[in-house]
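Changelog note: in this version the structure field was regenerated for every chain. One regenerated record is shown below for reference.
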Amino acid sequence: MFGTFQDSAIRIEVAVAAPDIQKSLVQPQQVRQWLWPQTLSPGLPEFLEPGLSFTSHLGAIALHHHVDQVSDHRLRLLVAGAIDGFHEWQWGNGWVQSRLEGISMLPINLAHTAQLWRLQQFLSGLKSNGGPDAARASIWSGFDHEH
């Protein structure tokens, strides 16, 4: 792959419980709702599982994903195509952090920021359907990803 090594790390806070965040990241039906205009392969199972491979598209740009790890608080995808690297998600009650690293000719930080903003809006909408705290949300870029 041609391009430069890039990395982007973003953490968001939303007033949503970890199980709802998990559903929004590992259930393709929910991912489709916030990932727009990026699209996912048709025919995906109800939940992402290790070993599953699929493709997403943003216009003519294709990104191939391979689910490496899934747990109650973590999702790790190996990616190839427009970006050769990995995309890792971690979450807990009220927060989500995402790290994207790889080689690409495209500016991944811009797309990554837009993706997390869409997720934040989606999760805030879940909270607004269930309570008055939907407006509480913020984004930090370049978080310290040591646990």
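Spot check on this record: The first helix runs from residue 18 to 26. The first strand starts at residue 4 and ends at 14.
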